[in-house]
Amino acid sequence: MSSSIPGPRRAPARGKRAFAATWWGQAWVTALEDSSLDPGRLSRGRTYARKGMVGPVTIAPGQVKAAVQGSRPRPYRSAVHLPVLADAQWDTLLDTVAARAGHLAALLDGEMPAELVDDARRAGVPFLPQPAELDPECSCPDWGYPCKHAAALCYAIAATIDHDPFVLFAVRGRGREEVFAELRARRAASHETTAPSASSGIPAAAAYTHWAEHTPELPELSEPATHTAALPVAPPPDTGLVAADLERLMADAAARAARILAGDTASLYLPQYQDAVRIAASSPGPEWFNHLIQNTGAKPSTFARLTRAWRHGGPAGITVAEQPHTPDPVTMTTARTALATALAEMTDSSVPLRAWRNRLTLTAHGIQLRLGPDTRWYPYLRDDDGEWWPAAPADADPVAALTTAWSQNGG
């Protein structure tokens, strides 16, 4: 199963983000840029893509490939690999699509519903690419990771992903027609009147959801700190395990269990890298922090930024840091008006306020406010390298969030 996209096709002419207008297309670009070890090669890749040096693109399960023209007469063979989903993960993803009629309707309209991606992620299916998943390959002698040719291919395909989210399905292992056939089969099964077998069971996630909706009153739980305990025996020698590390994990597991029993399921469906961020946010020490970075394969700066995002907003803070989205225009307009009024009072002058998706930016002051999925405003500050960092906990009032960022940034 593979498909081809005609080329060469010139990419948008301006800016890194010009290659992807949608949040899911930008997720692809972000995964590329966060996995790169050389910004210079990314810049060359963007130039190659803009000049139309990427030939026809072939999409197949687990890879996107194309011939990319370089400085030599003969084009190079470039590819980008992405892990395909296992059958069990596909079952979960398709069940998630079928669960809401609006999901499929949005996909057919060329939209990737954020709720679909969130539901799939909570069920343990990483549908959108993560930085550690994109694996570039090229026949050129360049040792870069990625080289400029593979980077050009990634940028060139981003606009296609914008217009057709089913490209992501195909790279993850199943094409549009196969997905439709699976969804039709699920619809037919849902209309059958025969009772399910008593031994068929139900998915664990569905069982937990049913329990959570009909949970009885639970006895008062002790504070998580009281669950800490020493190991009953020392770790076996020559295993590399340290008693103090295992005891920390025991205490963390007990604390999570207590929160889940109390109804806080925010950390129940975290992917591995977000769970590592959660642990890092508890300040386990520099050695643990470095080990968590190494084991997730994340860039240190990206991991540190997500750790700070978790401290300020938990899972919602991570979503705000990683995924721009398009909120209700009325909400954004109301917030922008309130901020403009507040800024006029604070500065006695007009301060330019740029709006993009769920973000309102005071470029001249290095301040940005991001509207989260929890309808709260998260303040961000720009560092000397031009990167945006979470600055403080969110606030329901955009003016209050602005005031916090303003005071931290010294106006």
The helix fraction, in percent, is: 40-55%
Radius of gyration, in Å, reads: 24 Å
What is the domain tally?
Answer: 3
List low-confidence stretches. 4-16
The averaged pLDDT comes out at 80
Strand content: 5-15%
What order do the SSEs take from the amino end to the carboxyl end, as H and E?
A: EHHEEEHHHEHHHHHHHHHEEEEEH
Strand order of the largest sheet: 1-2-3-4-5
Largest sheet: 5 strands, antiparallel
Description:
This protein has helices at residues 23-35, 39-50, 87-99, 101-108, 114-122, 148-163, 166-172, 176-190, 204-213, 243-261, 272-281, 286-296, 300-322, 329-347, 398-408; strands spanning 3-5, 54-60, 63-68, 76-81, 135-138, 354-356, 359-362, 367-371, 377-382, 388-390. It folds into three domains: 3-83 and 126-187, no CATH class; 259-323; 329-408, no CATH class. The protein is built from 15 helices and ten strands. The protein is globular. The strands form two sheets. Strands 1-2-3-4-5 form a five-stranded antiparallel sheet, covered by helices on one side. Strands 6-7-8-9-10 form a five-stranded antiparallel sheet. It is an alpha+beta fold.
